């Protein structure tokens, strides 16, 4: 009788402890709890003369080392591609009626990040996806609203900026659609947006 009571009491205490224990936290992805990366201020002086950069512009599809860009070089690349270059918030690349309806995502070794023109990156997806999108040190993903008939022209201005910066900085790059859909259903794009094209950038061996 006493043994039965002790067993029943022990069972009741165990059930009470389970009821009071905190539930396991829900899985959190990068988009739910964004991590911000502050980049160095871009260096806006120096570089190769424009005519030399145009003369040297070409696509490099092989020979990447896979090494990461230095933070300063990453900052300079992203600013050249789509940064603010005037106090009123206008940017280094044009868009029709200054809509600025392009998003630049950066696939690095430690996740996929959204570039914000205040010189920060916001992580939106964990994991290293570079190998599925051309390799290199990083891949730039250019996203636009699907309904924007000028989206391709806008993106072209951005990737040309990036390509000329790469010539000036001694980096390889090429624009492509290989792996264009690698992040379908994973990248938290705004409703009605799509990744239009990719650009691999990297240090060379």
Gist of the model:
This protein is of the alpha+beta class and 205 residues long. It has four helices and seven strands, in the order αβααββββαββ.
Give the CA-based shape.
globular
β-strand amount: 15-25%
Query: What is the helix content?
Result: 25-40%
Q: Briefly note the structural class of the backbone.
A: alpha+beta
Give the tally of β-strands: 7
**Strands across the major sheet, in which order?**
1-4-3-2-5-7-6
How many helix segments? 4
Element order, helices and strands?
A: HEHHEEEEHEE
Q: Which segments are poorly predicted (pLDDT under 50) over 5 or more consecutive residues?
A: 7-28
Mean pLDDT value:
88
Report the major sheet: 7 strands, antiparallel
- Oligomerization state: single chain
Q: What Rg is obtained from the alpha carbons, in whole angstroms?
A: 24 Å
Termini Cα gap = 80 Å
Task: Give the key terms.
alpha+beta; 205 residues; 4 helices
What does this structure look like?
With 205 residues, this protein is α+β, with helices and mostly antiparallel strands. Helices cover 28% and strands 21% of the residues. It contains 4 helices and 7 strands, in the order αβααββββαββ. Helix 2 packs across helix 4 and helix 3 runs antiparallel to helix 4. The chain is globular. About 11% of the residues have low confidence.
């Amino acid at each position: 009788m006493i043994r039965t009571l002790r067993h029943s009491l022990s069972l009741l205490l165990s059930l009470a402890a389970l009821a009071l224990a905190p539930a396991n936290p829900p899985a959190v992805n990068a988009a739910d709890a964004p991590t911000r990366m502050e980049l160095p201020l871009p260096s806006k002086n120096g570089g190769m003369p424009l005519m030399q950069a145009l003369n040297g512009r070409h696509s490099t599809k092989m020979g990447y080392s896979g090494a990461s860009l230095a933070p300063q070089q990453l900052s300079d690349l992203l600013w050249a591609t789509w940064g603010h270059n005037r106090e009123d918030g206008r940017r280094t690349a044009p868009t029709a009626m200054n809509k600025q309806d392009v998003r630049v995502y950066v696939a690095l070794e430690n996740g996929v990040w959204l570039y914000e023109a205040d010189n920060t990156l916001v992580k939106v997806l964990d994991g290293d996806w570079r190998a599925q999108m051309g390799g290199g040190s990083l891949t730039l993903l250019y996203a636009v609203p699907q309904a924007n008939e000028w989206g391709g022209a806008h993106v072209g201005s951005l990737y040309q900026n990036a390509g000329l910066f790469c010539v000036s900085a001694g980096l390889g790059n090429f624009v492509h659609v290989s792996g264009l859909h690698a992040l379908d259903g994973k990248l938290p794009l705004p409703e009605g947006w799509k990744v239009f094209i990719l650009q691999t950038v990297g240090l060379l061996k």
